[in-house]
Amino acid sequence: MTAVLTPAVAARGIHKSYGSTRALRGVDVTLAPGRCLGLVGRNGAGKSTLVSILSGLQRPDEGEVTFDGEAAPPAGAVHAWRAKLATVHQHSMIVPELTVAENVFLGRLPRRRRRVDWRAVRTEAAAVLGEWGSGVDPARACRDLSVEQRQIVELARAVASGTKVLLLDEPTAALEREAVLRLFTRVRQLVDAGVAVLYISHHLEEVFDICDDVAVLRDGELVLTAPTAGLSTDGLVNAMVHGHVGGPTETELADQASRTAVEDLPVHVESADAAAGRPVLELRGLTAASEYGDLDGVSLTVAPGESVGVVGLISSGVVTLGRIAAGIESGDEGELLVGGAGLPGGDRAAALEAGVGYVPEDRRTAGYVGALSVAENMTMSITDRLSAGRLGVLGRRRMHEAAQPWADSLALVASSLAQQVADLSGGNQQKVTVARALARDPRLVVAITPTRGVDVVSKELLLQALRRAVDAGAGLLLATDELDDLGYCDRVLVLVRGRIVAEVPGGGRFDRTAMIAAIEGVASTIGSIGAGRGATSEEPGETP
Ligand SMILES: Nc1ncnc2c1ncn2[C@@H]1O[C@H](COP(=O)(O)OP(=O)(O)OP(=O)(O)O)[C@@H](O)[C@H]1O
């Protein structure tokens, strides 16, 4: 006879609406001790809403949550919920001003005679971190930690609290390959020790790697819960899109979805660069010291109608390169030319005026204005063109007419074009950010990790939208850590520690393993990534 375990967490009949949006419609989910459940779904399907209800941040309109068969704490009883489960969010929730040890014990510092026992804080934090082999110094300020180290601190906090339930909300979004593998090992250790884990990710291969079971949300309804062992990626994508496992392959689904995007997007590029035979972007000997990664003498060009990918580790300077090209920050040495004309460094207004559209690496701080509507954000860069009459009044109707094709083509999930962007799901906010960058018919688009947090089908839509601008004659500089995105580029530059170490043809014609090794700075593999045309760095092919 098999023993029936009480679920560590059970959510039953959960309903949650925001105005007319029914984010969750009668969802039943259980998390079992010693099992990892993957939660997947398209952007706006309701995943974050479910996580916020399971972690006590929001109260459901209907339904109940139980822990070990007992009723959940009352809504708002933050400490009581934290004692039940730990959540690691996509965006770190640690306090940068505090040390690692203080963050590990945040909200429950060990005390002796009513005073905080600092010695215990340090030794216990060191014990937890040491056990995990992380090498993170408990005395260090969290401000100075890498993204991976911050997530380790969050996981250590969960472990130190002796949690029996762990919710991981897209934990790998900002991590790199080795870091992801290390994270998986740690999560597996927790599962083997009996912790119940809910793992949310848009990277379906991760779900197959780490989850025992998977649950699929579609339009707020749970359409599938099954062991991952009997499922294929195509089956999972079909469940996300249609609500059932059978149907076309993932590639066919993406093709179907992207056809409309290509046809209907209002992208026109009025640039004289092609006629003049000059590059849209030229960087000459760019050297920069930046918190986003240093650059060391980088030169590159992007031609009209060309898409150039730049790929590298977070610290490689890829993001810095994108920020300088977009006029967000300036280098210490070197030149930035757009359409043959020099631009002052770090002057976003001048870059915008020169026709540079920008998708930033952090949409929340620079991609959109949360308090404004979808339509206002999408048309923000073209208000001068849309304004009518002597007073230059911008009518709501004109704004909505201009925004509608973007919302349709990118399959935006919003209650209306008047909805505030702050209230959209993360992936849909990203779609608004991309639309905003393309709306002014830019001659150059600089996109940094544009598909982060976006579901597998919508990813195709965003990349097709960028491709559409390229086909219309714009140049694209695509800085990314997603190898799949590079398939859309005509050529790809690999950056290691601020230098271009290799150039390979795009279109997916590269050896993934060799590419990953090159990204990580293993020099011997560089020649075998693809039929490369030679590096363009100051010292070709050299790896530090
Ligand atoms: N505070 C809010 N006000 C209004 N609508 C909201 C709010 N929060 C979420 N929604 C809506 O609820 C729906 C579900 O959103 P949710 O963030 O749960 O989706 P998700 O599956 O996590 O998406 P993503 O993969 O893009 O992160 C969306 O239509 C979203 O616009």
UniProtKB/TrEMBL annotation:
Coiled-coil annotated spans: none
PANTHER family xref list: CARBOHYDRATE TRANSPORT ATP-BINDING PROTEIN MG119-RELATED, GALACTOFURANOSE TRANSPORTER ATP-BINDING PROTEIN YTFR
Annotated PROSITE patterns: ABC_TRANSPORTER_1, ABC_TRANSPORTER_2
Keywords, sorted A to Z: ATP-binding, Nucleotide-binding, Repeat, Transport
Gene Ontology MF, one: ATP hydrolysis activity
Keyword GTP-binding recorded: no
Annotated Gene3D superfamilies: P-loop containing nucleotide triphosphate hydrolases (3.40.50.300)
All copies of domain ABC transporter, residue ranges: 9-244, 267-522
Pfam families from the UniProt entry: ABC_tran (PF00005)
Name used for this protein in its record: Sugar ABC transporter ATP-binding protein
